[in-house]
Every structure is written in structure tokens, then in C-alpha cells.
């Protein structure tokens, strides 16, 4: 028997082709990330410095934490455009609670509950009243943005010095705490999406909601839960943003929802639903963050950055 007819190498070749075809998007994103590092390292002063890489991780956490829940939402065939104002509104509420001398632990629990309730409201509008998710969350976007600006007169709400918030906005073993939290939540959501009945239900609903309903999946409950998770993670992001800025700001996180959605879509999640991966979203978050960071260091006009 000739060497070319042995089945083992052929099997390996087929397996490699299957692996590449299944992960072509992730492989492409890794190549893009490598190119971005090469281009910005050569042209953007200070890009490759350790301090700037920590800034990249902090910025990635702001996008990434919200992006984990957004991935499930888009896989299910829905969309959430209320993330940015929800993050900002939570930061404002946290700042006011701390000004009223509410203990930090209780204040954080209250704003986490607030975020979950706002997400649940969007989920109920979609799941119970069949309001399109874009319309439901756009209404929430407008309401939260307006309420935040009204409560603060468009001014930052300062937060007094606090050791825990300083730690949340700082570093642990040289790594931003927000980035560590992002990765812990990433691992949790990977487990949820791959190993739980709820995660499988999200994919089923996104693939064909009618068929999923006929198979016994409670489509209404799935839709409500994914928006609740989105609100909860937006609240987590709001707390970390307030810790980083040292204030609550209704104008903060402006346009964050578009960065989050872009990261998810760039990561390979189909807007039509039924397909996507959190690892792809992680790479998408890095791509979006690196582009933004590199453009700032290159001195590109902030308005033109939005074009890019």
C-alpha cells in the first residue's frame, strides 16, 4: 500500500478542512487583530506600551460585558439598542444613592435590580405584547437618556472617595479589575450558551421561533430572560463605569450600544438569529476596541473616528 493511500493523513486533512470551514470567521478576526497590532505599533506612538494595553483592556471591558448578553439576544433573533443609556442611567442612580449615604453594597444591589427590571420591561414588551424588540428598546433608549439628563442637568454627579470603587476602577495583579470581571462573565456565558437547556433554547428560538414553540420551548420566557440578562449586565457595566470615572454621568456611554452590536456582528453572530458564538464576540470586541484606541493615538479627528 502506498503512503498516499493511507487513511490517517487523509482523515487529518479532512478534519483540518472542517475545522477551518467551521471557524473561518474566528481565524479571520485573529488575522485582523494581528494586522491591527502591526499597523498601530509602527504608526501610533505608545500603542504597544504596557500602559496603553491596560487601557485597551479597560475599554474592551466596557464593550465586552454588555456584548455577552447582546450575543444571546441577537442569536435569538432580537436586538437591544438601549444599552448605552441604560449604562449611563445606572451610573447616575448609583452616584445619587451614594450621595444619600446608602451603603455601597446596598446601592450596587439596587442598581443591579434596576437594570434587571428595565431589561425585563423590554422583554415583557417583546415576549408578552409582541412589540418588536427594536421598537421596545428604542423607546427605553429615549426614556432613559431623557431621565438621566433631567436628573443631572447634563452634569456629572460626583462620587466621594471609596476604597471598593477605587479597587473596581483600578487593577489587580497588574490587570484592570473590569477586564477580569469581563472574562469571568465571559466564561459564565459560554457555559450558559453551550451547556444549559436555556442556551440551547436561545439558538432554537433564533433559528425558528414557531418550531421551537411546537417543540415545547417557552419562547416568551426565553425572550424575557435574555433581555433581563442584558439589563443586568448593562448595570454591571454602569457600576464599573462609575468606578472608573469617579462620577455618574448621563452623557457617558454615548453610542455604546452601536459598539456592542458591531462587536457581536463582527464576531460572526447572524442578525437573522440562530447562529453565533461568544468567542467570536470576544474577538469582535478586541477588533472594535483596538480600532478606536489606535485612531485616538494617531490623532484622528473624533468626528472622523465615527465614520471609521
TrEMBL record:
It comes from the Bacteria. Keywords: Cell inner membrane, Cell membrane, Membrane, Transmembrane, Transmembrane helix, Transport. The chain crosses the membrane at residues 27-50, 56-74, 104-124, 131-152, 172-192, 224-245, 278-304. One of its GO terms (molecular function) is transmembrane transporter activity. It is found in: Cell inner membrane. It is a multi-pass membrane protein. GO terms for cellular component: plasma membrane. Belongs to the binding-protein-dependent transport system permease family. AraH/RbsC subfamily. This is ABC transporter permease.
Amino acid at each position: 500500500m502506498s503512503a498516499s493511500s493511507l487513511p490517517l493523513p487523509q482523515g487529518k486533512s479532512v478534519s483540518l478542512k472542517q475545522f477551518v470551514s467551521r471557524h473561518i470567521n474566528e481565524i479571520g478576526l485573529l488575522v485582523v487583530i494581528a494586522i491591527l497590532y502591526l499597523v498601530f505599533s509602527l504608526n501610533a506612538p505608545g500603542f504597544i506600551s504596557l500602559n496603553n494595553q491596560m487601557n485597551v483592556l479597560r475599554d474592551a471591558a466596557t464593550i465586552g460585558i454588555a456584548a455577552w448578553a447582546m450575543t444571546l439576544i441577537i442569536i435569538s433573533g432580537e436586538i437591544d439598542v438601549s444599552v448605552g443609556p441604560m449604562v449611563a442611567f445606572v451610573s447616575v442612580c448609583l452616584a445619587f444613592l451614594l450621595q444619600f449615604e446608602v451603603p455601597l453594597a446596598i446601592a450596587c444591589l439596587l442598581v443591579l435590580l434596576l437594570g434587571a427590571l428595565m431589561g425585563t420591561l423590554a422583554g415583557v414588551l417583546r415576549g408578552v405584547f409582541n412589540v418588536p424588540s427594536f421598537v421596545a428598546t428604542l423607546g427605553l433608549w429615549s426614556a432613559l437618556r431623557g431621565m438621566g439628563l433631567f436628573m443631572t442637568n447634563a452634569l456629572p454627579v460626583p462620587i466621594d472617595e471609596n476604597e471598593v470603587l477605587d479597587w473596581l476602577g483600578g487593577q489587580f495583579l497588574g490587570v484592570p479589575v473590569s477586564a477580569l470581571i469581563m472574562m469571568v462573565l465571559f466564561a459564565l456565558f459560554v457555559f450558559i450558551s453551550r451547556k444549559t437547556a436555556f442556551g440551547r433554547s436561545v439558538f432554537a428560538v433564533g433559528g425558528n421561533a414557531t418550531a421551537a414553540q411546537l417543540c415545547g420551548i417557552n419562547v416568551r420566557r426565553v425572550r424575557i430572560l435574555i433581555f433581563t440578562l442584558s439589563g443586568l449586565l448593562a448595570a454591571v457595566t454602569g457600576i464599573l463605569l462609575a468606578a472608573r470615572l469617579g462620577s455618574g454621568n448621563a452623557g457617558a456611554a454615548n453610542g455604546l450600544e452601536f459598539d456592542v452590536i458591531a462587536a457581536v456582528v463582527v464576531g460572526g453572530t447572524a442578525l437573522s438569529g440562530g447562529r453565533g458564538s461568544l468567542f467570536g464576540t470576544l474577538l469582535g470586541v478586541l477588533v472594535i476596541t483596538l480600532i478606536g484606541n489606535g485612531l485616538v493615538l494617531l490623532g484622528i479627528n473624533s468626528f472622523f473616528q465615527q465614520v471609521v
